[in-house]
Design a protein that fits this description.
- Helix 2 packs antiparallel against helix 6 and helix 5 packs across helix 6.
- The protein is of the alpha+beta class and about 210 residues long.
- A hairpin with a 4-residue loop joins strand 3 and strand 4.
- The chain has a single domain, classed as NADH Oxidase (3-Layer(aba) Sandwich).
- It is about 35% helix and about 25% strand.
- The strands form 2 sheets. Strands 1-2-7-6-5-8-10-9 form an 8-stranded antiparallel β-sheet. Strands 3-4 form a two-stranded antiparallel sheet.
Length: about 210
């Protein structure tokens, strides 16, 4: 793991390379997948974060830039954020995942879990998890080609990405849950999202109790 701090530029964290194999079969991951709302108190590790983000939107084919989740027209409207509260190796803050470099770019200083907890109607998993994965979308990337139908395609895509995170969490012996009830503007503000992005999913992640 390499952390780069260059004057005038955002802090970048180079993530460990993702594993491409494990002892968990896809069949076992499907069998064991559950929505987990209670977590242990231990921090997550950077390799675990690396694996989860790669599962969500990681590049799996360099030449064409294809990713782990399918995307209509390979237009990739999704953006992924890490809200780090208790992750070994990185400071608390909000980081944006950059798939092509497999790295994080810090966009907000400090622990923002309580802000997302309040924005998420005080749902306990959001407060208790050591980290949150937030997935947003820039609809225009897809609607520019597919028109209004593209909105449906974006919603399909975020489901694909979230299921990847669920299954990867099983393989890592972690738990997660999809949270869809939140105030969009409050989440956007807490994560310093650009105005063209719309938050769609909040996924707390933590160790199984």
């Amino acid at each position: 793991m390499v952390i780069q701090k260059i004057r005038g530029e955002a802090e970048r964290v180079k993530l460990p390379s993702p594993m491409l194999d494990s002892g968990t079969s896809i069949e076992k991951a499907l069998l064991k997948r559950r929505s987990v709302r209670e977590y242990g108190h231990e921090p997550l590790t950077l390799p675990e974060i690396s694996q989860l983000l790669w599962a969500a939107q990681g590049v799996t084919e360099r030449k064409e830039g294809l990713r782990a989740a399918p995307s209509a027209g390979a237009l990739y409207p999704l953006e992924v954020y890490l809200v780090a509260g208790d992750v070994d190796g990185i400071e608390q803050g909000v980081y944006k995942y950059k798939p092509h470099g497999h790295e994080l770019v810090k966009v907000v200083e400090g622990d923002k879990r309580m802000d997302i907890y309040r924005a998420s109607l005080y749902q306990e998993p959001v407060k208790d998890a050591p980290a949150l994965i937030v997935i947003s979308a820039i609809y225009q990337r897809t609607t520019i080609k597919y028109g209004e139908r593209g909105i449906r395609y974006v919603h399909m895509e975020v489901g694909h990405a979230a299921e990847n995170v669920y299954l990867q969490a099983v393989a890592l012996n972690l738990g997660t849950v999809v949270v869809g009830a939140f105030h969009d503007e409050d989440v956007r503000k807490a994560l310093n999202m650009p105005k063209e992005e719309t938050p769609l999913y909040v996924m707390p992640v933590g160790r199984l109790r």
